[in-house]
Amino acid sequence: MNASLGIRRANLAETVIQELSARIDNGIWGPGQKLPSEQELCKEFGVSRPVVREAVASLRLGGRLVARQGVGVFVVEQDVKRIGFAIDTVVDDVRAAAQILELRLGVEVESVARAAERRSPTSMAQITEALDRFSALSDASLEEEARADFEFHLAIARATNNPHFTQLLEALGPDIILDLNLKHSQVHGKNRQAHIKKIAREHGAILSAITMGDVTGARTALRKHLEESLSRYQRLLDSKA
Fold first, then answer.
1. Residue 52 dihedral angles phi and psi, to the nearest 5°
2. What domains lie within the chain, and their CATH numbers?
3. Each residue of 194-209: b (16+ CB within 10 Å) or e?
4. Looking at 98-151, which runs of residues are DSSP E strands?
5. In angstroms, what CA-CA distances link 161 with 42, 157, 168, 236?
6. What does the alpha-carbon distance between residue 160 and residue 57 come to, in Å, rounded to a whole number?
7. How far apart are CA 39 and CA 174, in angstroms?
8. What is the pLDDT of residues 87-139, one digit of tens each?
9. Which residues, 6 or more positions from 176, have their beta carbon under 8 angstroms from its beta carbon?
10. CA distances in angstroms from 172 to 58, 178, 212, 213, listed in the order given
11. pLDDT tier at 8 (50, 70, 90 boundaries)?
């Protein structure tokens, strides 16, 4: 997928996200109510299935929708609890992000290994598409950068062919995006595009190892990618101690 197509699809997905959110906010779809089918939403909004899937995935990550396998997608009940952390101060933000990264290392290093073993043409296309979408970012908001970054890691989880990896990452999605927002917010001005390119290169190294079925290489590339941020957070915490 080329860069211009990736940007256009991201814009369409954002439009669908806003409309779906408005319907939930306005009570058109109440708690526990099932959304129209993918096909119906595509027809109504005049967009492709990947656009609808991306919009729905974003709202699932935000804790507004929940998918029930074989049944459909529903508005989250008001009393549904998600995995989360209480965030009060800047120091707590850094500490919580570091804690999330420690958990991600345990989960995603194994996830990427299973993806390298079990990759399929479909899952490889999805990971590549997520990388292309992230690489095509230009003048994006922090939220857009964080969501695109997360979608790459979520595509890897899906490639494991083990739904528990995917479900765990989705449950942790808002907290992982906290970490990614913090990560991307530390780079400003002219350095932002270089920052995007650096992360894209790291994602590319991970994708390359998965493509070759290199389990050890995939683990190494993913660990290096996450541990750099973890080390930076630890230095920040040490400096404030």
1. -65, -45
2. 3-75 (1.10.10.10), 90-240 (1.20.120.530)
3. eebeebbebbebbbeb
4. none
5. 26, 8, 13, 37
6. 18
7. 27
8. 333 445 778 888 889 999 999 999 999 999 999 999 999 999 999 999 888 77
9. 100, 104, 150, 153, 169
10. 13, 10, 29, 27
11. low
DSSP per-residue codes, 64-79: SEEEETTTEEEEPPTT
Which two structure tokens, joined as six digits, stand for 52? Answer: 């609808």
Q: Which amino acid is at 150?
A: F
- The model's pLDDT over 141-198, given as tens digits with 9 standing for 90+, comes to 777 888 889 999 999 999 999 999 998 988 888 788 877 877 777 766 667 788 888 9
Element (H, E) at 120: none
Rounded CA-CA distance 180/185 in Å is 8
Supply angle C-alpha 179, 191, 153, rounded to 5: 35
At position 188, the amino acid (one-letter code) is: H
DSSP 139: S
